[in-house]
Amino acid sequence: MNLIFEELIASYLDSGVGQSCDFLSSELSDGLVLNLAGHEMKNDMKSAGIGQNEDFHKDLTYRKDKIHWLETTTSNSSERLFFELIDLWISYLNQTCYAGIMKSEFHYALYEQGSFYKKHLDQFSKNDSRVFSMIMYLNANWKEGDGGELVIYKENETIKIAPSLGRMVFFDSGKYEHEVLPTSVTRMSITGWLKRS
Ligand code: OGA
Ligand code: NI
């Protein structure tokens, strides 16, 4: 994995947005997609909120995805492999970049046809513990025209990223506003945050 971690760090240092096309293997993605579909079948994917604590609310005109948080205590083999990969990635970041990551949190996300997430920043206004945002895409057959791209607003440039299988994107949670364009097909991902506390 170290080559992929190096690719992620190099692109992050170069452009502020780290990217790799093969962070998740297709076997691991298949297993994670099955879990996500299982949660959806059991009605365990819940519409996501905005804000934290007393600011928390749900607003379907702003954000229409459904989420399910992963538990680190899981016995599911794909999720165990996923967390092993994340542990390796965090150790690599901490050792090579002194990133000081102490914690992380991840959720599955499901955007049904027509869903979107308007422009936002991932850091909460009263809490800057989220350092890096990470998104891993689980869409095997994403095609041009399917929508659902991630758009990241940098100072002088906007970047548009297709949510294709295996891809991982990472950037500073407090730095770039970003949005998910309306998708015309089911769009699946795992989103997470690396935190200092
Ligand atoms: C988020 C988010 C982007 C994506 O969940 O905060 O911005 O591409 N997701 O799914
Ligand atoms: Ni976001």
Question: What would you say this structure looks like, in words?
Answer:
With 197 residues, the chain is of the alpha+beta class. The chain has a single domain (2-54, 61-195), classed as q2cbj1_9rhob like domain (Jelly Rolls). Helices cover 26% and strands 28% of the residues. The chain has three helices and eleven strands, in the order αβαββαββββββββ. The strands form two sheets. The chain has a seven-stranded antiparallel beta sheet. Strands 5-10-7-8 form a four-stranded antiparallel beta sheet, with no helix packed on it. Helix 2 (26-41) packs across helix 3 (77-97). It is globular. The mean pLDDT is 95. It binds N-oxalylglycine and nickel (II) ion. Nickel (II) ion binds next to loops.
Give the termini distance in whole angstroms.
26 Å
Report the portion of residues in β strands.
25-35%
Give the overall pLDDT as a whole number.
Answer: 95
Could you state the order of secondary-structure elements as H and E? HEHEEHEEEEEEEE
Residues in helices, as a percent range? 25-40%
